[in-house]
Design a protein that fits this description.
Strand content: under 5%
Structural class: mainly alpha
Mean pLDDT: 87
Distance between the termini: 19 Å
Oligomer: single chain
CATH architecture: Up-down Bundle
Strand order of the largest sheet: 1-2
CATH topology: Growth Hormone, Chain: A
CATH class: Mainly Alpha
Low-confidence stretches: none
Radius of gyration: 22 Å
Number of strands: 2
Number of domains: 1
Number of helices: 15
CATH superfamily: MFS general substrate transporter like domains
Largest sheet: 2 strands, antiparallel
Shape: globular
Helix content: over 70%
Length: 464
């Protein structure tokens, strides 16, 4: 029987995604509007840059996975990268939000270089972190618990960064230029991220080992991955889910700044928050609630059905966003809460199901390539994020968006479409993919038991 993870390990594992998610949410919510409204490049240029740099970044994921699978150190295959990459990760985050005194072409080149470096650092630490889930435990329920802790901490990190980013920015603006304020805010976020990654490194263990007689045959590992039908289905569902999330998140600050008019604020405990900040915080809070419900709900009806229903409900609720306006902010916030709950419930299941496909492949082929499976999965997640981010910026340009001016009626209508119908279509496509997913909870349990029996037999034979 595979040893279960401890509470300390689950918490330690969660800290890693708190760190990653702080940066991910900054990329999602603040980077685009930083580029267009502060850094000074056009929405179309930003969209093209996102596509070009993220395609390269997407290709890096399986490369990093292969490197991890072939890493042998006293810390394991995946944990050492948390130690080695954490500090460079934080430093590059600060450089990313630095505005040089260059002309438009120089700024664009700087943006391409620094954003590429940031994504490479993100890959170098996040692929090993994600893959760690597949070797901490061989038990499917334990993995779902680990994934749930991961997602709770992920949304906790998101909540934290959303709560502090704008207030820190405003605080630094009182003494510094807006460009310097972004740098200093990222220094704070970067230090927190490094500390969180250190907790993950120190508090986790790798338990699942590759079969002792397995050689380093990359060609065979890739061949097996391409035959892994459940993994391909999750690939499609994951890409569509990320497009759903990234378009909604990417357009939200534009939606509030130029349509809802974000000069209206909410005061809570003597702190004042813009509507956009409340919207984002509410989303992260209900994301976290959804994550916490993933395990009990999926235990009742199964991972596949939970995923399917959550996406279908998200599609319907997203469509209703189109009727929202300044007079219907209560409805707007209610829809945000419900959609975010459904989105939150999905991600622990997605990563737990990826681990299940790695077990499926090992039982079927006799080979285990955890790093390749998870890095290829991470690659598809980034592909969805890439497409979502680029689609967002290109649609802004298509609808005639111009920074820091009053928008035309067709642009406003475009913002409404982008936060409603486009995410709804992506959610429906995600549900369509998961409808064909073959690994039921019963089947996964059978795979787990077969693998445990096989590993126990190998152990007994080697000790004989």
């Amino acid at each position: 029987m595979t040893e279960r993870t401890t509470l300390k390990e689950k918490i330690g594992y969660g800290f890693g995604d708190a760190a990653s998610s702080m940066f991910w949410k900054i990329f999602t919510f603040y980077l685009a509007i930083f580029y267009t409204d502060v850094f000074g490049i056009s929405a179309a240029a930003v969209g093209t840059m996102f596509l070009v740099t993220r395609i390269w970044d997407t290709a890096n994921d399986p490369i990093m996975g292969v490197i991890c699978d072939r890493t042998n150190s006293r810390y394991g295959k995946f944990r050492p990268y948390l130690l080695w990459i954490a500090v460079p990760f934080g430093i590059i985050g600060v450089i990313l939000f630095t505005t040089p005194d260059f002309g438009l072409t120089g700024k664009l080149v700087y943006a391409y270089i620094t954003y590429t470096l940031m994504m490479m650092a993100y890959t170098a630490i996040n692929v090993p972190y994600a893959s760690l889930l597949g070797v901490m435990s061989g038990n499917s329920d334990d993995r779902t618990a680990l994934a749930s802790y991961r997602m709770v901490f992920a949304f906790g990190g998101s909540l934290l960064v959303v709560a502090i980013f704008q207030p820190l920015l405003d605080l630094f603006k009182m003494s510094f230029a807006v460009t310097t304020s972004y740098q200093l805010t990222m220094v704070v976020v970067g230090v927190l991220a490094v500390i969180f990654f250190m907790f993950t490194f120190l508090w986790t263990r790798e338990r699942i080992k590759v079969p002792e007689d397995q050689d380093n045959n990359l060609k065979e590992d890739i061949k097996n991955l391409l035959k892994n039908a459940p993994w391909f289905i999750l690939l499609g569902a994951g890409v569509m889910t990320l497009i759903f999330n990234s378009v909604r998140d990417g357009v939200s600050l534009y939606y509030f700044k130029y349509f809802i008019l974000d000069d209206t604020a909410v005061t809570f405990s003597k702190m004042t928050f813009a509507y956009s900040t409340v919207f984002i915080l509410l989303g992260q809070a209900f994301n976290m609630f959804g994550v916490m419900m993933a395990k009990p709900v999926s235990a009742k009806i199964g991972k596949r059905k939970t995923f399917l229903f959550a996406m279908l409900i998200s599609a319907v609720l997203s469509s209703l966003f189109y009727i929202c306006n300044r007079e219907l902010v209560v409805l707007l916030f209610t829809l945000q809460a419900l959609i975010s709950f459904c989105a939150g419930i999905i991600f622990p299941l997605l990563w737990s199901m990826y681990a299940d496909t790695a077990d499926y492949s090992e039982l079927k082929t006799g080979r285990r390539a955890t790093g390749l499976v998870f890095s290829a999965s991470s690659m598809t997640q980034k592909l969805g994020w890439t497409l979502g981010g680029s689609i967002t910026m290109w649609l802004l340009a298509f609808y005639g968006f111009k920074a820091n001016i009053e928008q035309a009626p067709e642009t406003i209508n475009g913002l409404k479409v982008m936060i409603s119908f486009i995410p709804a279509v992506a959610a429906m496509l995600s549900a369509a993919f998961i409808f064909f997913y073959q690994l039921s909870d019963k089947k996964v349990k059978e795979i787990t038991e077969a693998l445990e029996a096989k590993r126990e037999h190998v152990t007994q034979s080697s000790n004989a």
